Structure formats: structure tokens, C-alpha cells
Amino acid sequence: MSSVMEIIRTILALPEVRYVAVYSKGVLHSESKPKLASSSNPDSDRYEELLVNPSILVLLQQRGNIDCGGLKWVLVR
To answer: Residue 58 and residue 52: Cα distance in Å, rounded?
Structure first.
């Protein structure tokens, strides 16, 4: 998979996934399945990706670097 959008489309094709975000090279890319009942507000999703998730990533990366060999990715369910 060469592009961020290709990665997003592949993950979004899974039936259990409603929303995908990838923060790559300082740019937030995100997409959600259309017309979903009970989905959150797009502005809320954006702020979560810009504020909350980067904080989680820093904490997990620092923990992983201590004695777990680092961090490759995180899945939030």
C-alpha cells in the first residue's frame, strides 16, 4: 500500500470499522462510512485526532521504548 488514502480505504472496508484517521507527515487524513446512525460529530472526531490521540501515542511510545522494543501502531476500539 503506497498511499495514505489506500490504507484508509482498506481499513474502512472492514465491516466493523466506521472511521479511520491517519496522521502522516504533519497532515491529518480521515474518512468515515457515509450515513451511519449514532456516529459522532465530525468536529469531535477531528479534535480527538488532533489532541487526544497524539497524547495517547506519546505516552505509549515512551512506555514502549523503555523495555518493549518500541511502538509500531495503536488500535483504539
So the answer is: 10
Convert the pLDDT of each residue in 11-66 to its tens digit. Answer: 999 998 888 888 888 888 888 888 666 566 777 877 887 888 788 888 998 999 99
Domain boundaries along the sequence of the chain: 4-67
Distance of CA 32 to the CA centre of its chain: 11
Phi-psi label, residue 41: left if phi above 0, alpha if psi -120 to 50, beta otherwise = beta
Rounded Cα gap, residues 42 and 76, in angstroms: 17
Partners of 32 in beta bridges: 19
pTM across the whole model: 0.60
